[in-house]
Known about the structure:
By secondary structure, the protein is mainly β. The protein has one domain (35-365): TolB, C-terminal domain (Neuraminidase, 6 Propeller). It is built from three helices and 26 strands. The protein starts with 5 loop residues before the first strand and ends in an 11-residue tail after the last strand.
Amino acid sequence: MIPWYLLFVDPRSFAVLGENATFRENSFQLFNPTSTTPPFFQIFDHSFLSILGPNPSIRQVTSNLTFAFAHEAPIYVPATDEVYFASNDGGTLGMSDLEHNNVVGKISLRDVDLAMAANDTAIDVPVTILDLPDTIQMTNGGTGPFKSSLVLATSGRGPRPPSVVLVNPKAPHNATVLLDNFFGRQFNSLNDIKVHTSGKLFFTDTESAFLHHFRPNPLLPNQVYRFDTGTGVVRVVATDFDKCNGIAFTADGVTAYVGDTGASGGFLGNNQTEPATIYAFDVDARTHVFKNRRVFAYADTGIPDGLEVDLEGNVYAGCGDGVQVWNDVGTLLGKFFVGSTSANMVFAKDGRLVILAETKIFVADIAARGIPPISP
Length: 376
């Protein structure tokens, strides 16, 4: 018997809907033809079962329905079995603008384990808010551990520049700004950041802070940058995006994925004719420039925000209905369908995927494994 939370949707079942069908009017409508109550696993290809494993589960573990506390910058720290994350930095329920910074919090997966072991029907583990220095303004991206520290990419706020910051995960969370300009020019608003196999940091910069009214007009193109923490050298590796967002690499560092969330326009409104697209690139072995750009996938619901790649090369993206998963050739295999926007996710220990769904956090126990942190 197939468990209720494994929902197969055969693509042939909706390939032709007919002229009298009720079609979706916009990309922010959920595609749930079986009207199943989330959370559940929506399966479009049987190979998704190998990702889920024989006994998958997905549960909400904490929530705050008045505050989008779980939005971006997820970082799993194996030493303490904790996941760090940032609240929304200017969007709905974000409570952050020109007058208010966003916050960075964390949960303990040990608390999650204890609650699950107790068979709690309504798990609600505590969220700890970090007291970070004022140099850290509007955190939007995160990676690590990197040299035993968290790496945060900030959007900046008002005249305060966007920056890459190294933060001690232990109190008092002393911080070191590693980069806050491109040859004297402020970035627009840093979005996401990852460590490459080379040990260098790669980050995206876009105009989203301007579109959410907490940064001035953009002064640079929306681009992807490489930063060498040893030499201080920063260079552009990819350009010509509408709004570059999430970034991720395959385990060998040969392929890069970058999401373009042009369809989300902030105060300008959403525009479905703009990208909600993930692009794949080859990473040049010597220069690390991104080459051979091609369309990898287009998200049917919402926009593809944060990106992750598992050890088998499958690509995960936080979208408007949960986390969507494609194989390495861009075939949509399935979704962690939570029924709401999930901007980001991170792999934790033992095949555990932690999903940030704005006002909620979900934990999925699956077979797939994330790429271990690269710590030069």
